[in-house]
Amino acid sequence: MGEGKKTQRIDKILGNLGYGSRSDLKKMAKQGRITLNGSVVKDSGMQCHPDLDVLEVDGERVVYREFVYIMLHKPPGVISATEDVREKTVLDLLPGEFRVFSPFPVGRLDKDTEGLLLLTNDGQLAHDLLSPRKHVPKTYHADCVGLIGDREAARFAEGVELDDGYVTLPAQMEVLERGSYGDGSPRTTIALTISEGKFHQVKRMLESVGSKVTYLKRVSMGPLALDEALPKGAFRELSAEELEALRSYKNKPVE
Predict the structure, then answer these.
(1) Mean pLDDT of the chain
(2) Active-site residue 150, yes or no?
């Protein structure tokens, strides 16, 4: 039935999942700590079908998968990188069982920006979602200095010139709330949807209309919306529906 092609060496499966090096796993097999369908595995190089066979280490079932897809509510003060000698990164927020998959952030949020961040080790999905040709929309909520409204929304809809002369693609803005800062000066909270990802783009767009962003949160990326039940710094794996929405989205024709 062709299923033989899907088998893999037990030490490869367990190594990929972070259970140890090939020599570690050889020792574990000798110690009787690995079982396959209830029988002790003496040779860690044995073949196993990860989807059909029951593989256990120290009596616990091994759940095999190739990819992980994680929604993180990124808190401020954490950088969107996989490693940094000085700064705390988004990977530091994940437990070891997820870090063994070597996930990476799909796109980046500035250190002081919070909100939706997708982490995965599925390079093809990430590439498709990040492709500049795809123009994947990303929506942010921002607190901005001053009273901004229809005039700024009209300018964003046409595209604005940034400080380096780049003219942005059309963006959609709506006012969510008007308020004031502690000193009584006016504040406008907006939702801004952009379909590209230039460096500090939202902040620079607001500067181009004479305002300044004081708080920034990403709430969606393509079909994926931040789960409002997820506190800052918390994460969860994507649901089957969310993953399907992302996969079908990445396959849509380039605009």
Answers:
(1) 92
(2) no
